[in-house]
Amino acid sequence: METFEINKNSWLHSAKNIRFNNNILEADLKNKNECWKYNRIEIHPLLLDKHLYNDDGLFKYNLSREEDDTVMKQLFPLYNGPTIPYINISKCVMLSVNIPKYNNLRKETLQILNNYKLPPIHVHYGYTRETSPTSKFYNYIINKDNRIELTMGMLEIFENFVNESTDNEWLLYFEDDVRPINIDINQDLTKLYNIPEDSELIRPYIGKNEYCNITNINYNISYGGALAHAFYISTNACKKVLNYTKKYNWKHSCDIDLFMLAKHCGKYPTRYDGWYFQGCGGNNDITENLEEIEKINMYQMSNCIFNQTSNPCV
Fold first, then answer.
1. How far apart are CA 20 and CA 27, in angstroms?
2. Angstrom distances, CA of residue 311 to CA of 20, 86, 200, 287
3. Same domain for 134 and 58?
4. Burial class (CB in 10 A: 0-12, 13-18, 19+), 221
5. Is the pLDDT of residue 314 over 70?
6. How far apart are CA 14 and CA 37, in angstroms?
7. Number of domains composing the chain
8. Cα 1 to Cα 21, 23, 203, 250, 268, distances in angstroms
9. What are the residues whose beta carbons fall under 8 Å from the beta carbon of 114, sequence distance 6 or more?
10. Going by DSSP bridges, is the β-strand pair 219-221/298-301 parallel, antiparallel, or unpaired?
11. For residue 43, what are the CA distances in angstroms to 6, 136, 154, 270?
């Protein structure tokens, strides 16, 4: 690997304890409050000549749109290996909360989803900030300042699905403000077609914002980033997530840990995390101690087919 030229970066004037070994850059950066924040990132070969700067105490890349597109195509290549002709989706489970604010939203979402050919939809009622300590997963969450109620509700859904599965089945997970896009109501969403043979989790909200047919969607390797409002997950992946939680504890917010469990995840930022590790405080420490067997084979669809009202991703 070429030498990473630290002296070309503007963050030096607000940094201390700088170390660069085995392509890992470590430094304390000063934030807007004049406090020091520890950062640890891997300098990926594709990002060697990209400028890093100090964004309020965190390393961040500032890529042009053209650079972004070029790097992302290489970081998340199109899968071209063996595929499974189709799989059945056993059920959909929507995470919601039984309070007035979400009751109205959930009702509206279910009315929309009922127009589509989906597996049976079940609602799992999770937690508010006040009731979250009653969850069996509460003590596994390290940072309780995050939206831990989402994490605990998701983990309960995974545990229930594992307990009721008789084989390696598939679940479609929703939050309660999800909307289908780029597909018409006549398409059969009870199946996924031509998915990678080793798939365990598939993200359906990252790809091109264009009309598509569910039978012709391609898949890219996926990892890292945020947004957990909708995804497909297998029984085996649910087991891995639950094992990770109990063995290592949940370190960050719901989406951060989940997508950093991916097999190909590195210690470098991507577009999906905004080109910096804001969600994990500047230090990607999720995959460091994991064995390969504990990681998830994760892919993303070539087209976006689900979006959400509270945090649109397209």
1. 9
2. 36, 30, 25, 27
3. no
4. middle
5. no
6. 11
7. 2
8. 12, 8, 31, 33, 15
9. 121
10. antiparallel
11. 11, 38, 32, 11
Asked whether residue 68 is assigned to any structural domain, the reply reads no
Measure the CA–CA gap between 134 and 183, rounded to whole angstroms: 39
d(CA 295, CA 312): 28
pTM flag (> 0.90): yes
Statement to judge: residues 130 and 40 lie in one domain: no
Whether 261 and 156 map to the same domain: the answer is yes
Give the span between the Cα atoms of 240 and 187, in whole angstroms. 31
Q: Rounded to whole angstroms, how far apart are CA atoms 203 and 302?
A: 10
Confidence of residue 313 (pLDDT cuts 50, 70, 90): low
CA dihedral 14, 269, 236, 230 (to 10 degrees): 110
Q: Write out the residue range of the structural domain in which residue 31 sits.
A: 6-62
Which residues, other chains included, contact 88 with Cβ-Cβ below 8 Å and sequence gap of 6+?
119, 169, 170, 190, 191
On whether residue 295 sits in a domain, the answer given is yes
277 occurs within a structural domain: yes
Residue 51 corresponds to which tokens in the numbers above? 């400028």
Residues 6+ apart with CB under 8 A from 209: 181, 182, 303, 304, 314
Identify the three-state secondary structure at position 3. coil
273-309 burial by CB neighbour count: b if 16+ within 10 A, else e? bbbbbbbbbbbbebbeebeeebbbbbbbbbbbbbbbe
Residue 279 in contact with residue 256, Cβ under 8 Å?
yes
- Cα–Cα–Cα angle for 78, 51, 227, rounded to 5 degrees: 45
Distance, in Å, from the CA atom of 277 to the CA atom of 44, rounded to the nearest integer, reads 14
Query: pLDDT tens-digit profile of 128-173?
Result: 989 999 999 999 999 888 778 999 999 999 999 999 999 999 999 9
Question: Two tokens at 247?
Answer: 């063995």
